Amino acid sequence: MKSTYAICSSAALVIGSLTLFASTSVQAQNFELKATHFLPPNHAFHKELTRWGDDLAKKSNGRLTIKVFPSGQMGPTPRQFDLVRTGVADIGVGLSGASPGRFPMTEVSNLPFVVTESSRSSKLMTELAPKYVGQEYAGVKLLQIILTPPLKFHMTKARLNTLADFKGLRIRYAGELFAESIKAFGATPVAVPPGEVVDAMSKGTVDGAMFPHEGAQSFQVSTVAKFSYEPGINAASFFWVMNPASYEKLPADLRALIDQTTGAANAERIGKELDDAEVEGRKHLESKGVQVVTFSEAMRRDMTNVVKPIIDTTISKLEAKGQPARQFYDALVKGGTR
Fold this sequence. Notes:
Blueprint: H1 4-28, E1 31-36, H2 44-59, E2 64-69, H3 80-85, E3 91-95, H4 118-132, E4 141-147, E5 152-155, E6 170-173, H5 176-185, E7 188-191, H6 197-203, E8 208-211, H7 213-218, E9 227-230, E10 237-242, H8 244-248, H9 252-260, H10 264-287, E11 291-294, H11 297-320, H12 325-336
Parallel strand pairs: 1-2, 1-3, 6-7, 6-8, 9-11
Antiparallel strand pairs: 3-10, 4-10, 5-8, 5-9
Helix pairs in contact: 4-10, 4-12, 5-11
């Protein structure tokens, strides 16, 4: 008869072998993550997701890859967050302004004249996110937040030399705070999905649209716009999120790869690419015959004055709910100023 010790030793060896086998099996397993976004394949974010997937595949020897679904293939623009939260997608890139009221503190970054450069502001926003906006991303793992270069006015015919020139114009916007800016300048904001802007501008449904230069290039706004005005007004905020279960199912070394290739430093890098793409987008518009016009100092002063109540009202409403909006706004403006 075997001793109790021998039986226990044999059992321990079997358990140890099974554990080692399971661990080895997980380490050898390949993982493909589904990434969703609503932008066209020629957009900088689609290119960045593709580049990231290639980088992960290389660093993991092919064990971790990303399959990207662009142009809202998995769901419309406002659903990008919930596609990830519910596990339909593993990773998602979405526009906070597409779901008004859902990300109110995040949208403080969308207030007029907060952002001048994407690189600096994206890094800062991602660094500040845990303290100021983390609660808005419950149910997902927040990877980073990218703030675009500020959106410019791209107009079919209208010349914008004074605030009076905005009167009677209909302009496509990208979020509620963008709409407030348009109204403050004297025009009427109109909700148009980005992919339908060119058609709306060509038919005269709208007289213009707000996009960064890079976005205007991606959505081919140069085919209908005659004028583009800078500097930009409001920046858009894009969240990059991951489903927590999708993250946790990865072995430790692959989770580490996700962590190493996202975050504040990566947000700064992507922001730098957007800043560079903004320069290229501007050149593209000019090459297509679009006249890029810089607002006069007097015009910029008037624009700054008329949007101040928007800033104060937005911050006051959030402060009344116990949110440190003023502190957050001040940190973003100070950190994003050249």
